[in-house]
Amino acid sequence: MRVLLAGATGAIGVPLLSALAGAGHEVVAVIRDPAKRRLVTDGGAVAVIADVLDRDALLRAVDGVSADVVMHQATALRNASRRLTPDDPTIALRGRGTANLLDAARVVGAHRFVTQSLITGYGYRDNGERLLTEEDEFGVHVGTVADLVTDSSVATERQVFAAEGIEGIALRYGMFYGKNAFSDMFADMMRKRAPVLPRGRTGTTSFVHVADAAAAAVAAMERGRPGEAYNIVDDEPMSWRDFLMTVARTHGTPRPVVTPRWLLRLAVPYLGCLLIDTTTRVSHAKATRELGWAPVHRSVPEGLKAR
Ligand SMILES: NC(=O)c1ccc[n+]([C@@H]2O[C@H](COP(=O)([O-])OP(=O)(O)OC[C@H]3O[C@@H](n4cnc5c(N)ncnc54)[C@H](OP(=O)(O)O)[C@@H]3O)[C@@H](O)[C@H]2O)c1
Question: Which domains does the chain have, with CATH numbers?
């Protein structure tokens, strides 16, 4: 298939480019920084330059391109600000960005659209011991600023499911680790002795290696059922405390600096603190059953050992 991919230069985008090329698909990557052109052309893709949030520029950039599928993997969490506001770029990318990419899908003649959603949509709260499935309520509000993030995941899903003439599929990813993802990000922070771990208990969440997430995106594009969301996670949910300890061990960094919660709130972006107290264990049974996908790296220690 021919794929128009937004987010090709990111933590999931780079392994996704290789996975798509490996499966024989052709990629046209929408990138906003011309200096990154080589990153995608070396991966076998053609680059078009546009900011996904600039609808007119995006539609101009894809004029003359043809594609069967659009994949939305663009987020802007890397330089997240301390406070979360409705005009946060990641929130805008899931709302307005999805709408713009759906318009681009019509221009390029695509009939399928795979979008990036997140398991945090099950609610930034303690979701208990049970493995959640796609049957569980998605878009759960908890009365904090994190609801903006939840709403943005719902917004991208709803738009792609409702788009006329388009087969929309949403991937509810667990927390990414692997190259350039959370494990590398926290390893950097621990090397700098920045506070990362609150005193007391942390939440437990489902993770996924970025290479497995990329493989799932290819499987969803090829075999996903229109109008369906799939949880894309590994087999062993892990507490953030254990995650950070594992990252410190495998990356050879100092152990995480433990700090009172109020201090952590000053040190890390808005969502870090909310995320670290959230417990969301999720099942990938539906993805395995319908997409024929299962994580190669079944747990974080296994995935980080293989890095
Ligand atoms: N499920 C998860 O756990 C999850 C989900 C998302 C992100 N994350 C984590 O958060 C961290 C940052 O990830 P990230 O995905 O935000 O950054 P990232 O790895 O840099 O990837 C974001 C991608 O979106 C592109 N992009 C951003 N804004 C764009 C725009 N307006 N128009 C076109 N393209 C745009 C970026 O392009 P540029 O190269 O030009 O910046 C990049 O290709 C990583 O540690 C990642 O693992 C985790």
Answer: 2-177+208-233+282-295 (3.40.50.720)
* CA–CA gap between residue 40 and residue 30 (Å, rounded): 10
Which residue has the least CA distance to atom 45 on ligand 1? 181
Ligand 1 atom closest to the Cα of residue 12 is 19
Which protein residue's CA is at the shortest distance from atom 12 of ligand 1? 78
Strands 238-239 and 204-205 come out as antiparallel
**Pocket residues: Cβ below 6 A from ligand 1:** 6-11, 13, 32-33, 36, 51-53, 74-78, 93, 118, 173, 175-176, 180-182, 185
Question: Model confidence over 40-93: pLDDT tens digits?
Answer: 999 899 999 999 999 999 999 999 999 999 999 999 887 777 778 888 899 999
Q: Does this model's pTM top 0.90?
A: yes
Q: Which of 77, 90, 179, 205 to mutate to test the pocket of ligand 1 (most atoms within 8 A of CB)?
A: 77
Rg (CA), the chain: 18
For residues 157 and 99, the answer to whether their CB atoms sit within 8 Å is no
Is 226:69 a contact under the CB 8 Å cutoff? no
> Closest residue (by CA) to atom 39 of ligand 1?
9
